[in-house]
Amino acid sequence: MKRFVYINDDESPTQEIYCDNRISNRKYTLLNFLPKNLWEQFSRFMNQYFLLIACLQLWSLITPVNPASTWGPLIFIFAVSASKEAWDDYNRYLSDKKANDKEVWVVRQGIKKHLQAQDIHVGNIVWLRENDEVPCDLVLIGTSDPQGLCYLETAALDGETDLKTRAIPSACMGIDSDLLHKIKGVIECPNPDKDIRRFDANLRLFPPFIDNDVCPLTIKNTILQSCYLRNTEWVCGVAVYTGNETKLGMSRGIPEPKLTAMDAMIDKLTGAIFVFQIVVVIVLGIAGNVWKDTEARKHWYVLYPNEGPWYELLVIPLRFELLCSIMIPISIKVSLDLMKGLYAKFIDWDAEMIDHETGCPSHATNTAISEDLGQVEYILTDKTGTLTENKMVFRRCCINGIFYGNESGNALKDARLLNAVASGSPDVIQFLTVMAICNTVIPVQSKTGAILYKAQSQDEDALVQAAAKLHMVFVSKSGNILEIRYNASVLHYEVLEILEFTSERKRMSVVVRDCQNRKIILLSKGADEAILPYTAAGQQTRTFSEAVEQYAQMGLRTLCLAWRELKEDEYHEWSLMFREASSTLVDREWRIAEVCQRLEHDLEALGITAIEDRLQDGVPETIETLRKAGINFWMLTGDKQNTAIQIALSCNFISPEPKGQLLLIDGKTEDEVSRSLERVLLTMSITTSEPKDVAFVVDGWALEILLKHYRKAFTDLAILSRTAICCRVTPSQKAQLVELLKSCDYRTLAVGDGGNDVRMIQQADIGVGISGREGLQAARAADYSIGKFRFLKRLILVHGRYSYNRTAFLSQYSFYKSLLICFIQIFFSFISGVSGTSLFNSVSLMAYNVFYTSIPVLVSVLDKDLSEETVMQHPQILFYCQAGRLLNPSTFAGWFGRSLFHAIVVFIISINAYAYEKSEMEEVAMVALSGCIWLQAFVVTLETNSFTILQHLAIWGNLIAFYVINWIVSAIPSSGMYTIMFRLCGQPSYWITVFLIVAAGMGPILALKYFRYTYRPSKINTLQQAERLGGPILSLGNIEPQPRSLEKEVSPLSITQPKNRSSVYEPLLSDSPNARRSFGSGTPFDFFQSQSRLSSSSYSRNCKDN
User: Fold this and answer.
1) Residue pair 287/322 in contact by the 8 Å Cβ criterion
2) Residues 351, 801: Cα–Cα separation, whole Å
3) How far apart are CA 1043 and CA 122, in angstroms?
4) Which residues contact 136 (CB under 8 A, 6 or more apart)?
5) Could you tell me the strand order of the sheet in which 137-143 lies?
6) Rounded to 5°, angle at Cα 258 from 253 and 262
7) Distances from the Cα of 889 to the Cαs of 265, 497, 892, in angstroms?
8) Cα four-point dihedral sign 1086, 1090, 1094, 1095
9) How many CB atoms sit inside 10 A of residue 878's CB?
10) Which of 145, 382, 461, 693 is catalytic?
């Protein structure tokens, strides 16, 4: 589909067809906010459930409590969620209003007028001044630059900080600026899309400006919304996409919410509680109806009618449903959201994760998945700019078979190369010429006269800088004319065509005319496999291949440079095909690549460049630490295989030989790849090396075949392997590999720094972007952004682990306190005729859920079971989080049993002390409620590992507040609790009862905890004790998971490979009570005995079918 934009035609129907330039990112309006927000909230099953319960409570015949006990918390929670949505939407409204109200110059009726940006329509001509923000997507038709160029800052669009050049179409060259507002024509362009790197369109100007010739347009002829005009006095352009239809507007949207492993577990546990609740309701409902028809009629004071309505049998079950509805805590979602928001703020506020070199802090964009950081099993990382600094330095080169820089390590100081430059060696001059002008670099002269280079690629910048240091200086670019200064002479080249780099072609070329001798030359640079196969027949390329191999072994990035002279006829014939391909609107990129292939052949290879990209500080240590934490690494890079392997060796990604083994999967056909894969699977099954020392290497070509034809077998290999190096991979292949690991139920984290990493980052369970030299695209698309790779260690081990621990406690405690009060209600029904009568009044129930038990646990967001130093020193303890040891059906059963036990204790002691005509029912209820409040205070205290003033205030201050509030309520005659708290607090029996409840409830818990801590301590318990005693720790030992179990015989690829893999539970279940411990002042102690293999027990996770 395409659209036709009529330029400067106020009567055009497109004015009405296409939207105006009003930007709207709002989700709501004043009229639809309430219904739309309520609809969204009630689309969740939990909220529908609570609404149903609240509505049933309006039926006075069945409700055991005042409806306010459910409606109050429900309205409060909905109000909090709605207020947050309203505030976020209001901020979006203010941002939209600011953009819409900006004033710009627009041509209307042939006259330039000052209008608001929101009044721009498609086809209008818009004028911009220097430093103006671009209000919509424009096609340039004029600039103040005589060569038709302008400079843009695109950081707001793609995160890249370097200025970009844009040029007016050739059809508009030479049109006087005074005539631009009168220009007429039509632009044929695609319908709006979000691809900011592509714009395939055609321009046709109407007479008298040009005689209806078609002029192709590309993204180079556009300036997009939210960019800023720099270093250009003025530009004017035609609006082609406006409002929310701009490329930036189409890119906006709400990303798919990510469900964490803990959220999934909480949902499962909630479902289990719901099923348990239904069973309880059915059993008690039947029991209640039986008691009513038998025992109830024997008592004169039970006034059941002899005959009731048809729905009488449903009354008691529904009453119990309402009574048991609090089994599922209504406040759990709000509590979790609040705590997750604080986790994200802790990441933002972490001063130790600020990159002091750039001043870039860490930032959590996604506030809902912090606990997943503590459960990461696989990290998939880019190489350039992620593991390395992306600071390219020209180190070595090979020109016409001669190696430079091998002795000194710096070709720029090699005397032989300097002499060759000084003597004017033709091979060297041609080599330096390609380095200097085969690029998209923009030279800019500073105020001091120095030449600065603005490059979109760090490789290009390094090459141009190196050429300049070797006296081939790229001085200026004026339109299509390049000025090069070589020694004392000045050379000029006219750029005829630029054949841009693509990930498929893996090379770029420029066609230039030498203004000195008028010859047309093709200059090319690219990967060796994209250049050397296209050299002229007869040229010896073996030396170049050896140079590439040698440099790659050193971990250097290599590029091959080549050239050839073109004949005039050949160029003109090709130019017509190139122009035709450039003007097509369908498959333009493919057509252009095909035409480029017709020119890029019979090349003369000139030499090889080798560029160093140094590792970032702390990368080897970070990878080593995270490996100890049981996290596996895959490197996904577009670089050469040997370069990637050398970088992997230098950063502890893989172990060097003979300890480490690299298994290569290669081949160009299906059969070759199949045999290679079988060989790798067989080797992995019989190797005696540690799994972390075995890695497989695969390139993009073989990977394409594996993912298409042998996906099942490759998935098996992924399960067996802890380390992989994937070279020459495309952005889409990176995303496919992430999806492959996710399909095996691994928790994945993808980290990258460039736009080519965005798909991988968005596909992973957790995306981390590095704010690097390639811009902010990755950081903006990610869930978390950091300044350097080394901060990943703290992000996972500290923030991820603490978030997991705190969320596990909060979620299970929320169920515990709800089940506790619910079990007491159930027990009370057995002494109240199984009638569904509530022991507690509505006010007490509402206060218990919203206030008494919520505030103390919220400060658990500050709790730390171990200090940050201990966690960083002993990363192995992350296994507890990866294994889900703190939140799983087993731990939940413990909390379930604790709530049942505490309910029995509270009920039996309260009833025996105050019931059976000794006191009023309200007094019994208040005694039971007091017992619950005291118990929960001690439970929170027992489960808290580190205390702060806030935690003490929340726990004990909340206990004091309980009595203060109830004293106030007891002073109100109409409250239904008049004088009750005064009477109870004045009775010694009340305090004795509370003491008995706490002693009986907490005694066994404390005894069990002491026994486990003393005689069967976990590794975390031992570390906690070490921290308290202050003794140094000699060694944590080796608690990595055992190698994945491998079959001794590898079956053919058509047969499903085994999917058994070792469980991260394994090292945790091997906690030994016999671990040696020696405590004392200054006495070191050793624990976690080293073991080369753990027990052979393992479990398997079924891999989803692909």
Assistant:
1) no
2) 18
3) 62
4) 21, 117, 120, 126, 225, 239, 241, 242, 243, 246
5) 111-116, 103-108, 125-129, 234-241, 137-143, 222-223
6) 160
7) 9, 66, 5
8) negative
9) 26
10) 382
Structure tokens given for 403: 């190696």
Q: How far is the C-alpha of 160 from the C-alpha of 775, rounded, in Å?
A: 4
Element (H, E) at 103: strand 103-108
Split at pLDDT 50, 70, 90, the class of 1053 is: very low
Closest CA to 456 of 224, 781, 142, 152: 152
Length of the chain: 1106
Report whether 1102 contacts 1059 (CB < 8 A). Answer: yes
- Rounded Cα distance between 420 and 398, Å, is 13
Q: How many other CB atoms are found less than 10 A from the CB of residue 932?
A: 25
Give a three-class secondary structure readout of 86-102.
Answer: HHHHHHHHHHHHHHHCC
DSSP 649-701: HHTTSSPPTTT-EEEEE--SSHHHHHHHHHHHHHHHHH--S-GGGEEEEEEHH
Distance CA 572, CA 575 (A): 5
Contact 691, 724 (CB under 8 A): no
The structure tokens listed for 851 are 């206030």
**Cα–Cα nearest to 614, from 646, 588, 568:** 646
DSSP annotation of 1061 reads B
- Are 467 and 474 within 8 A, CB to CB? yes
User: For the chain, how long is the longest CA-to-CA vector?
Assistant: 122
Please tell me the predicted confidence (pLDDT) of residue 399. 93
Residue 901 has pLDDT above 90, yes or no: yes
Phi and psi, residue 609, nearest 5°? -105, 145
28 contacts 201 by C-beta, under 8 angstroms: no
| Residue 903 to residue 936: CA distance in whole angstroms | 12
Q: Is the pLDDT of residue 509 over 90?
A: yes
Known catalytic membership, residue 382: yes
C-alpha span between 145 and 149 (Å, rounded): 6
Residue 87 has pLDDT above 60, yes or no: yes
Per-residue confidence at 973, pLDDT binned at 50, 70, 90?
A: confident
Look up the pTM and report it.
Answer: 0.77
DSSP character at residue 57: T
Alpha helices per DSSP H over 842-888: 842-847, 855-858, 868-873, 879-882
Per-residue pLDDT at 1062 exceeds 50: no
